[in-house]
Design a protein that fits this description.
Strand 2 and strand 3 form a beta hairpin. This protein has 133 residues and is mainly alpha-helical. The protein has a domain of 81 residues: Arc Repressor Mutant, subunit A (Orthogonal Bundle). It has a 3-stranded antiparallel beta sheet. Helix content is 61%, strand content 7%. The radius of gyration is 19 Å and the shape is extended.
Length: 133
């Protein structure tokens, strides 16, 4: 049986459907974890003086509490019961500030050890350049 060669539009449409499905699965997994993961406060394990009460601090704490998970704006909004118009810009700002990582379009996660090291290395190089001057 011969296979038909798909049109480029069909391939693009299928790729978009797969991307949307992956995002939906990530959202569903986050909801599942919310219901069935062991109960622990989002800021558990943080010393009281470092717990950040701001929304951005709560977002960072959430992502760091589940370092292997990927979050979307919608899942962060739901988990923190926050204003969706605030969460998106705060996620983008946290990425720009090097506090969290962008995993894909609209997907975020905690920084890995390697990603944290890159930021420190860049600072060290900057300090070295300043010392030379």
């Amino acid at each position: 049986m011969a296979h038909r060669i798909p049109e480029p539009e069909e391939i693009l449409s299928l790729a978009q459907e797969l991307k949307d499905a992956r995002k939906r699965v990530a959202d569903l997994q986050t909801r599942w974890n919310l219901y069935f993961a062991p109960e622990e406060p989002i800021l558990a394990g943080l010393p009281q003086d470092t717990a950040q009460p701001t929304l951005q601090g709560r977002i960072i704490a959430l992502l760091e509490s589940k370092p292997d998970d990927t979050f979307t704006t919608a899942s962060v909004t739901m988990l923190l019961d926050a204003n969706p118009n605030s969460v998106g810009p705060l996620l983008s700002r946290a990425v720009a500030d090097g506090k969290i990582a962008r995993r894909g379009h609209g997907e975020y996660g905690a920084l890995t050890a390697e990603e944290k090291g890159k930021g420190n290395k860049a600072l060290e190089e900057l300090f070295d350049e300043m010392r030379k001057k």
